[in-house]
Amino acid sequence: RRVHGDIDPILSMFCRAARCLRLQGARGVHVEARIQQLGLHLPPVAPPKGNYISTRRTGNLVFTAGHLPLANGALQKGKVGEDTDIDAAYVAAANAVLSALASLKAEIGDLDKVKSVIKLVGFVNCTSSFVDQPKVINGASDTLVKVFGEAVGVHARSAVGVVSLPLGVPVEVELIVEVN
């Protein structure tokens, strides 16, 4: 229905904003405040350890390099199925994705600019008989959904078992994120 000419653009803008808020779900709270409410924190951004960069932005997409799990400033280490159980590896995956989010924040300035988490790739350092890689990488996926809400945080994903990861860590994660 047509509204008075001067009001129509304002009404349209209001409706778009309302739709956006409805889609964002848990995003009524700023992302970093939500991280604190969850009892989590973003670790300091570690400089790259080789000839690469931590993030690459192209258009409205940001790709992160692989990020490792930090707990209290130290790398978490272990091989799942050998000296690390699923629960400890789940926590490591959550910590690794927080490291990736810290690099993402350094790239875009504000995590509220995240429009959608497109894809998570998770690598699990595990024995050849270990088959529960998805349960481990759920630590990263669950953290993203808790932080951003379902509308923004649910993503496509790969969970891959590998024989070894850098520095003996149990997990490594990468993200592809759409930003405003």
Which parts are unreliable, with pLDDT below 50 for 5 consecutive residues or more? 14-27
* Average pLDDT number: 89
Task: Kindly state the percentage of residues in helix.
Answer: 25-40%
Overall, the morphology is globular
Report how far the terminal alpha carbons are from each other: 30 Å
Give the C-alpha Rg. Answer: 19 Å
> Describe the biggest sheet?
5 strands, mixed
Task: Please indicate the percent range of residues in DSSP E strands (runs of 2 or more).
Answer: 15-25%
Tell me the total number of β-strands. Answer: 7
Class by SSE composition: alpha+beta
Word description of this protein:
Strand 1 and strand 2 form a beta hairpin. Helix content is about 35%, strand content about 20%. The chain is globular and about 40 Å long. The strands form two sheets. A five-stranded mixed sheet has the order 1-2-7-5-6. It has a two-stranded antiparallel ribbon with strand order 3-4. It has about 180 residues and is α+β, with helices and mostly antiparallel strands.
Short recap of the structure:
The chain is α+β, with helices and mostly antiparallel strands and 180 residues long. It has helices at residues 8-24, 31-37, 86-108, 133-148, 150-153; strands spanning 55-58, 61-64, 70-71, 74-75, 114-125, 156-162, 171-179.
Record keyword descriptors for this entry.
single chain, about 180 residues, alpha+beta, five-stranded mixed β-sheet, two-stranded antiparallel ribbon, about 35% helix
